[in-house]
Design brief:
mainly alpha; 15 helices
Length: 391
């Protein structure tokens, strides 16, 4: 009877989880402001807790943290938007130089090394396509804004989402501990200790990832951008920002930034001195990331393999669009916590620990450990019935 109750309870839990996932998928188009607000509240909750311990009320602590977050975000936007616009204009103005370098240097070198058909490279067509795509950034923005401005409902929804994010973030930040306590009281008492344990472990992983990885991305973007700018690259800030932004996927930011910086150095200067300087900047950046930033800010609690990171980002984007990309790695980190818990449960279960009957085929296994550490296994196979019958 107890086994049947446990089975029914497990199916109920699975059904509830399936309904929640389905609702998230169904409501994903309208969840973006709430997801962004939730991330802001989660980032600000530890600081609000510290201010509470200093004697402030939760409302005042949430107000102070909220104002700090808003000032930082607005300052970053006011700083980055003009900088990005100038860098994009710089790239568009220098496209003829990039096309000339590709036509006279890169394509002939590839043709000579890879023995390719020269007709494969039509630099004029490629240059025109790049110009069209880069030049269309402003056109797309103008078109979108034009459509929004012509649609009364569209502009209302756009402004609503813009205003909704800080409002929801403030209320979530103010009532964060109360909401967590309410959810804890709503849990079935039979699974409450397990859910509480998994929530604590997930919070450790998310705290290490979200806060730490954002700081790593910021530090790498500033380092790469500053280093490339000091060596004289005109598009150094843009390359640095892209490399830092993509660094949440292992090695992707390094590869994209390094390749872009090498091409920019060859086009702008055409000598090996600046190429070596680019190599030095990115080598130092990798050492800084691997030995200082990630160990100090992120740690080794996440345990996500690079392939798992790439799969999580692609799967999240495919299922939930930009919202999925935004939440892919935090969700993958929580899933890793659940998988580790299930693995420990499996290792403690009878299925893993119960010894089976002796295999009638394998009679003896002799294990020998040599001095050099090599393990040698000698298996003696029991004779079959025909062999035992033979004289």
């Amino acid at each position: 009877m107890n086994h049947e109750k446990d089975t029914a309870r497990h199916w109920q839990m699975l059904a509830i989880a399936a309904v929640i996932v389905y609702l998230i998928w169904l409501l994903s188009p309208v969840l973006m402001p709430f997801a962004v607000a939730g991330m802001l509240a989660y980032l600000g909750d530890p600081l609000a807790d510290r201010l509470e311990r200093l004697g402030l009320s939760r409302a005042w602590a949430a107000t102070i943290v909220f104002m700090v977050l808003m000032v930082v975000l607005v300052g970053v936007l006011l700083l980055l938007i003009p900088l990005i616009a100038r860098q994009v204009e710089n790239v568009i103005e220098n496209l003829p130089r990039y096309g000339e370098w590709a036509q006279n240097t890169a394509w002939p070198w590839l043709q000579a090394r890879l023995h390719l058909d020269p007709r494969m490279f039509d630099s004029d067509r490629l240059l025109a396509a790049i110009k069209a795509h880069l030049g269309s950034i402003g056109g797309v923005a103008s078109t979108v804004l034009g459509k929004v401005s012509r649609s009364g409902l569209g502009i209302v929804m756009w402004l609503t989402n813009l205003v909704l994010i800080p409002v929801v973030a403030f209320y979530l930040l103010r009532d964060w501990d109360r909401l967590v306590g309410t959810i804890d009281r709503m849990l079935p008492r039979s699974i409450q200790p397990t859910i509480a344990y998994l929530a604590r472990e997930s919070d450790k992983v998310l705290g290490a990832f979200v806060r730490g990885q954002l700081l790593v991305m910021l530090a790498l973007g500033v380092f790469y951008g500053t280093g490339l700018t000091l060596m004289g690259l005109s598009v150094g800030p843009l390359i640095g920002m892209v490399a830092g932004l993509l660094s949440f996927v292992p090695y992707l930011g390094f590869i994209v930034g390094f390749a872009g910086a090498i091409i920019a150095a060859l086009v702008q200067y055409g000598d090996w001195t600046h190429v070596l300087l680019v190599c030095g900047v990115f080598i130092v950046g990798q050492l800084l990331e691997g030995y200082v930033l990630v160990p100090k800010l992120v740690g080794d609690k996440i345990g996500l393999h690079p392939v798992a990171v790439i799969f999580a980002v692609l799967a999240g984007g495919s299922l939930f669009g930009f919202l999925g990309v935004l939440l892919a790695l935090p969700a993958a980190s929580v899933i890793m916590v659940l998988l580790r818990y299930l693995l420990e449960r499996y290792r403690m279960s009878e299925l893993y620990n119960e010894e089976g009957p002796d295999d009638p085929v394998i009679a003896e296994v002799d294990v020998t450990v040599h001095r050099d550490g090599e393990v040698e296994t000698d298996t003696t196979i029991a004779p079959s019935g025909d062999d035992r019958a033979a004289p």
